[in-house]
Amino acid sequence: MRVVEDLQHRVQVQREAAVLLAQRIEVLSTKPWLIAQTASEGLQADVAHWQQQAGELLADANWPSVDLKFPPLLDASRGQLLAVWEAFRGALAQAAAAAANPAAALPTVPMWADELRAVRGVAIEAAPRQVKPRIDPELRRQANEQVRGVLDKLEAEIAQGHGKASAGAANALRSALKDHGRAIDDSLENQAHAALAAAGELEAWQRWRADQLRGELVARAEGLLKRPEGQAIGGRKMQENLRGLREQWKQTDLGGAPNHAMWKRFDEACNLAHKVVEAWVDRVRSEAAEHRTQRLALIDEVKAWAGANRIALDDDWRGFSRLLYGFGDRWRDAGHINEKAFAELQPLWDAAIAEAAAPLEALQQQSLLRRQGMIAEAAALGEVPVLRVDAVKALQQRWQAEAQAVPMERRAEQKLWDSFRQPIDQAFERKSAERDQAEAALGEHDRTVLEAAKALEQANASSDAQRIRLAMAALDAALRGQAVAQGQVHAAAAAAPPAVPAAAAPDHVVPVASDDNAAAGAAVTAGAVAPAKPASAPKPVVAMRGDDRPGMRKSEPAPAPGRGGKFGDRRDGGRPGQTGAPGRGFERPQRGEHAARADMPMQPRLGDAAFRAQRDALERAQLALRKLASHAHGEALTQLLLAWERRDAALLPNVQDLGARVGSVGRAAWLQSLAGASAADAGVALLRLETAAEVPTPAQHLEARRAYQLQLLTRRNDPTPVQTWVKDVGSVLASPFDSDAQNRLRNTLKMLLKP
Q1: CA distance 661 to 752
Q2: What's the mean per-residue pLDDT of the chain?
């Protein structure tokens, strides 16, 4: 059956091909005969090919089985094509003979005859125009209207490319021309024939295009099951593709004549591909049934859980809420079901989950009332002129405890929190604005302190001890608001002599770590710049506590700092902060100083930026002074050891470099020791120095040190090594130079000469 349908389809194709060949021959007859002669060879090959294909159809074994209407159609197409072709070939041969022989007869084709007459130089006679019989004007108008209406419809269908509609309109126009052709105008008649020719071309093109589109659809349908394994189409995608292909086939049938043979191939391919869709549908149905069973089981589980958990275990409502969210996640992940089943199960699920969440929702309503009350309290606290920070903190702690105890929906909880926080934030902003206004009122004082701190930073970068101390005094004056004193300090700094070497720095630096310390440091430095104010007369001492301990009598100087004194002596030489005793870097004020400080004006409050700037500048200044003093100490020690090695008294550092602990008397003794060298052993002197400095003794001299310490225990009235270390250094300098002794002396003097 399929082979017969293919034969019938081929007959129709041959008929259309015959029509197209006849149209080509007709078109060539309207062109110059030389062009027609050039194209005749190709046209002859096409005609021969058509005859060959028609002969194959007749020779086919299944040709007797085709429908009876097809053999006459093929014979008619063959006869018409051969008749047109023979007439064209005869006229072309006659034109070629007339061109070669001027006496030969002209061809029957009017255009070719006129062309040959022009070549021969014969005047072309106009063809006699056939005179139409006179027709009534009213009858002509009616005929023109009839034909014009049908012609407009045909032209509209041709413009839109509708093949079937244009064929029907062309038939209607032919009927109208048959009835009214003699009565219409010549222009209208020519326009009608042109429209009919266009309709014929469109119909032939539409048939060819429709078959081409059908072939593409058949290939796509057959290719649905011929994909590689990795590119196989799933059930839903296959269903969508089949629907699209069938819809496109319907649209193709609307534009041209149907093709039953191609439709059969297309339908068979679609039916084979639809088996994949059927398998997918069966699987989806089974999965939907399974998912429905799972959802029903989940609903029963939620109902059972709701009946057994009316309150949260251990009052853990957050865990209660997490379990509810877990049920919701399981419901969403329970798989796909159709809309009808979902509409049936969703109300059951809503009822079950609402019953399970009822205790939590009741608790959330109570928590909502409590939180609204705390929001009202926060609003009341925010309206108080003086903000109570302790009350705000307590209220915030209550809110946090409530939020941790009772969970709520995230969006609602955030909205409540924003309402609670807003009045408190506004109160703090109002407080910050008031603080900013207060700081703006003190802006001049802060600016002065910032400038002084910046000047101190520049002095720190210069590594000049004198300049750093002057800048520290200026900063202290700015801190106390003493504009006059600050001007005096700047004037003194400008008139100060060139910076002395770092080694000439005093051996004692007063650290400034607080406002009181800064005052003490400023008093020490300002005394050298501005005239000191006469201190108020101290009040007479009425009674004093009797204390005869060493260093506790007011008339006795405190012993030198250090360790290694007699048994029972204080290691620090006195109480921290006492006059003459090293403590926290400042001296305890005397009785007269309290009155002097009481007369000082109260220091204005600094802003945060100014306070941090002056604090950092003072800390860096103290660090710089300590570094400078340490550097000077190292240089002095190096020069001292070099003078001992070379026995050159000129290399001995001066009094300022050695520091106040040595003094001019000690330096003079060291000069004599360098000048008068002796061969005495310096071992005992080095042991005393190591004891005074509390540094370790080399391993080879440990026995000697232990023995000497035992000797010191028996000499309780002798001066301690701490008191005689300057003399012991002189003994070492008088002894011969030794590298081992040099290292031991360096280790001890690092501690003893340290400022």
Answers
A1: 8
A2: 76
Spell 281-299 as b/e; 16+ CB within 10 A means b.
eeeeeeebeebbebbeebb
pLDDT at res. 664: 81
**Alpha-carbon separation of residue 302 from 314, 476, 503 (angstroms):** 20, 76, 88
DSSP state of 314: G
Considering the entire predicted model, what is its pTM? 0.34
Cβ count near 702 (within 10 Å): 11
C-beta separation of 320 from 312 below 8 A: yes
> Above pLDDT 70, what percent of the chain?
78
**Which has the closest alpha carbon to 359: 329, 402, 401, 324?**
324
Tell me the HSE value of 221 on the side-chain side, using a 13 A CA sphere.
26
Place of tokens 């109480």: 575
DSSP states along 471-513 = HHHHHHHHHTT-HHHHHHHHHHHHTPPPPPPGGGS-S------
- Alpha helices, DSSP H, located in 647-738: 655-658, 663-675, 683-693, 702-714, 725-734
Three-state SS string over 166-202 comes to: HHHHHHHHHHHHHHHCCCCCHHHHHHHHHHHHHHHHH
Query: CA 621 to CA 615: how far, in whole Å?
Result: 10
Q: Which tens digit of pLDDT belongs to each residue from 26-56? A: 888 888 888 888 888 888 898 899 888 888 8
